[in-house]
């Protein structure tokens, strides 16, 4: 299966946002027939972009929350309900103010920023219109490169999905299974395993780990008790 193959059809019952392009992208990332370097470039880009997204979101909310907390010190006389309402309003207003601003300083954010831009520089090229409709029935604009020998058409398609998903806030759904490490597209944000099979295997292994931990604690408890008793004599 290639990235450009679409999975639209009457057999599809439910349509999750981004799944039609996200799932082929995940399959492409696992496809052994594709040049490993090409897959590594795209996989590395996704991981860094997702880490960056999470990091800047956290930086922004902790910055906003601290600033609002400081402001709220001044309105200490208001009632609890009123305070909560004022606080929520201030947080919303500050989130809006954030548009176009540079994120608060963070060494990791600076490092990721540099790495992402370096990775993107590999694809230096131009934007052109393709001669086909996308799955939403729109005309398609896509990035292409001056030197096609550097990146295959498949890799460029993958890059276009990554960029489109990043703009739509869907890239975080392209992730690795926390049990088997394979790439997959998460239908919902809470999904961290690629399949029901991996979900069960993860559950069982964590149950086993928990049982082991409990056993260790019991052993330590008895050891401690014995030592205390001996010491008391
Ligand atoms: Zn899995």
Structural description of this entry:
This protein is mainly alpha-helical. It has two domains: 167 residues, no CATH class; 39 residues. The chain is 58% helix and 9% strand. The protein has six helices and four strands; from the N terminus they run ααααββαββα. The strands form two sheets. It has a two-stranded antiparallel sheet. Strands 3-4 form a two-stranded antiparallel sheet. The structure holds zinc ion.
Question: Notable features of this structure?
Answer:
extended, single chain, 2 domains, mainly alpha, two-stranded antiparallel ribbon, 233 residues, 6 helices, binds zinc ion, 58% helix
Mean pLDDT score: 85
Helix coverage percent of residues?
Answer: 55-70%
Shape designation = extended
Low-confidence stretches: 4-13
Write a short abstract of this structure:
The chain is mostly helical. Helix content is 58%, strand content 9%.
Layout of secondary structure:
Elements lengths: L18 H12 L5 H37 L7 H18 L9 H15 L3 E9 L5 E7 L7 H16 L5 E3 L6 E3 L10 H37 L1
């Amino acid at each position: 299966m290639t990235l450009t193959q679409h999975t639209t059809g009457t057999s599809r019952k439910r349509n999750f946002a981004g799944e039609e392009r996200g799932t082929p992208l995940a399959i492409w990332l696992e496809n052994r027939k594709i040049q490993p370097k090409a897959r590594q470039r795209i996989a590395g880009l996704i991981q860094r972009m997702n880490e960056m997204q999470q990091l800047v979101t956290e930086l922004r909310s902790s910055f906003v929350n601290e600033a609002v907390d400081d402001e709220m010190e001044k309105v200490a006389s208001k009632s609890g309900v009123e305070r909560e309402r004022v606080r929520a309003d201030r947080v919303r207003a500050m989130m809006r103010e954030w548009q176009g601003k540079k994120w608060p300083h963070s060494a990791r954010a600076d490092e990721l920023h540099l790495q992402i831009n370096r990775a993107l520089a590999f694809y230096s090229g131009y934007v052109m219109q393709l001669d086909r409709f996308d799955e939403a029935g729109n005309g398609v604009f896509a990035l292409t490169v001056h030197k096609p020998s550097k990146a295959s058409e498949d890799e460029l398609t993958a890059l276009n999905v990554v960029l489109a998903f990043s703009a739509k806030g869907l890239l975080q759904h392209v992730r690795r299974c926390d049990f088997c490490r394979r790439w997959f597209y998460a239908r919902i944000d809470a999904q961290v395993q690629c399949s029901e099979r991996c979900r069960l295997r993860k559950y069982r292994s964590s149950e086993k780990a928990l049982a082991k931990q409990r056993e260790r604690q019991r052993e330590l408890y008895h050891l401690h008790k014995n030592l205390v008793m001996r010491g008391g004599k």
